[in-house]
Amino acid sequence: MRLFLPSARPLSPVGRVMWCAIGALIAAVLLLLWSSPALADDAEAMPGESPYFHVASSEPGTDRLPLKATSVDVRIAGVIADVTVVQHYRNEGQRPIDARYVFPGSTRAAVHAMNVRLGDRLLTARIKEKQAARIEFDAARKEGRTSALLEQQRPNVFEMNVANILPGDDVRVELRYSELLVPTDARYGFVFPTVVGPRYVSPVRAPSPDAPITAVPYLAPGAPAASAFDIKVTVDSPVAIKSLESSSHELEVEGRGTRRAEVRLRPGRPANDRDFLLDYRLAGDHIETGLMLMRGEEENFFLALVEPPKAVPVRQINPREYVFVVDISGSMHGHPLDTARTLLQNLIGSLRPSDTFNVLLFSGSNRMLAPQAVPATRANIDRALDTLRDIRGSGSTEIVPALKRLAALPKPADVSRSIVIVTDGYVSVESEVFQLVRQHLDRQNVFAFGIGSSVNRHLIEGLARAGRGEAFIVTRPDQAAAQAERLRRMIDSPVLTSVKFAFEGLDTYDVEPAQLPDVLGGRPVVVFGKWKGDPVGARMVIEGRAADGPFRSVTEAANREVLDAPALRLLWARERIAALSDQEALEGGNTQKDAITALGLRHGLLTQYTSFIAVDKLVRNTNPAHTPTVDQPSPLPEGVSPLAIGAEVPSTPEPAAWLAMLLVAGIVAATALSRRHA
């Protein structure tokens, strides 16, 4: 009985080549399987969710670019901005069309009104429960009546549908919203987003609790703008406006140095491929703080902004661990990743010798710079920066697996950990991300840096809110050093902790936020709520602990009533809806749907569960069944690579793909060697 098999006969040269070819084929298949989740092209994603490039249609008689212009009028008084947006649609084709347009908005916008001007007639929109509004719109569209439907897909992403636009029609849709402007380090900032960045949809993971975002078509790089854009801003201030500037657009300014200034865009290059950013300071670095009381017909509302104490240097700085989570996906290719590198050079390069750090890189997969946090020695810092310099953005944006890996990292009990996330935020799983951070990272301060010209601010601000940190936006490399220094100051010396709020002599309720967060730097304490009683003799008290001891601020309530401040009611409702939405994201599902719907209907606000709808009474289109739907294309955000849409560019393969490549290379080398010895 044989215990061993006979030795195999040596293969002929042809046999060796055949075996190597079979091995190479297997390796190539493994390469495709392993690297597919990391592709920047989302072709495998659910239909209708992934962004795509707009293709000019040869269909005669159909206007494929119905949105002709967007004009914006902003009026800022004190800390409240009232914004009117007019979208001008015109059908220059020979057949009726339905138009669909996905566009961005401010994360703080309380959208409270919409109307439609059809020729010389005015259609006033009504707020309705979302599904009911959709049913009414679909019925009106099928009947041939001109109608408009505004829906919220995210707090900062909206969808406009305009049905039955006849040839030659001029349709002007007007939206109105209010938002609160909260200064940072005595600087006010107003942001008007102009384009929705391309959102990645994972084809390999389970469905997200987030509703899908409608597919957005994008113009090819270099294509002429599909529509015009203009914005005018008027700022009224109780004191002179010291400085007024934009890091995103060239401006024409009137009234600089006075108490009323007007700002317009300077004619030039296209203006709607990046966020419009306006910063201004008041004389003496004055900020509008204090208490505003408004009496309503049914309820009274208040807004409190209390200036925090000045930050003071702490005597002892304890060692801290930092984990830098860096997005290196396809949408970060080029300018965004260059900006991120500059930022990280400042963040990592300024660590103290007593600190430890690690770097987590993610795209379709993720990897750590080291198995565990390493001391912030010069050698370790240089090694991290060298690694970042060699990376080129490519692949998909699987942020959830990266955060799960982060949550599983062991943490020493006696060391505080700060997490710094650097990304453009171009994902569609915001609620899932917020839930993960609240459940697993809420005891570690999370600081989120949004990189680029049209950042997903909903994700960036939500990450910071869920992780009890702060949000930063960096649009250009020359802003990186200042933002890195601001983060360092926040971490070294929180301005105010254990913050408590109370009214003495006045009954307050439905206060938002229910629990005040720590004040990390240069921002006022902001509180919304309702009140009852007589303000005379009442006062508002804010208490907390500052770096140099207890802090107490007292504001008298008498003579704080304002006669014309209807926005306070809307802003309170918007704040309450945001809090309920955060709670819903934590719990999963639509647990707060009824409460959010009730608030939206009561206060006439656009929410994820309520929509605005306007319907013409006249039947204008006699053949609505054959009316095509036209998706209005958007420009690709400034600085964003075509790789974000799926275009192929030279890229850095995913780590798993490297393994398959090495296997192929090894087999090829073995083949060459076998031929040499044959």
Give the class from helix and strand content and strand pairing: alpha+beta
Distance between the termini: 35 Å
Mean pLDDT equals 85
Q: How many strands appear in the DSSP assignment?
A: 33
Major sheet: arrangement of strands: 6-5-10-3-2-13-16-15
Helical residue percent? Answer: 10-25%
Uncertain runs are 1-8, 27-48, 648-665, 670-676
Number of helices: 11
Biggest pleated-sheet summary: 8 strands, mixed
Strand-residue proportion = 25-35%
Give the topology, please.
Layout: H1 13-35, E1 52-53, E2 67-77, E3 80-90, E4 97-104, E5 110-118, E6 121-124, E7 126-129, H2 130-143, E8 145-154, E9 157-165, E10 170-180, E11 188-192, E12 217-218, E13 228-236, E14 241-245, E15 251-254, E16 260-265, E17 276-282, E18 290-294, E19 300-306, E20 320-327, H3 335-349, E21 356-362, E22 366-368, E23 374-375, H4 378-389, H5 399-407, E24 416-423, H6 430-440, E25 445-451, H7 457-466, E26 471-474, H8 480-492, E27 497-504, E28 507-512, E29 525-532, E30 539-546, E31 549-556, H9 567-587, H10 593-603, E32 610-619, E33 629-631, H11 655-677
Parallel strand pairs: 1-12, 2-13, 4-33, 20-21, 20-24, 24-25, 25-26
Antiparallel strand pairs: 2-3, 3-10, 4-9, 5-6, 5-10, 7-32, 8-9, 8-32, 11-17, 13-16, 14-17, 15-16, 18-19, 19-29, 21-22, 21-23, 27-30, 28-29, 30-31
Summarize the structure in words:
With 678 residues, the chain is of the alpha+beta class. It is built from 11 helices and 33 strands. Mean pLDDT is 85; it is low at 1-8, 27-48, 648-665 and 670-676.
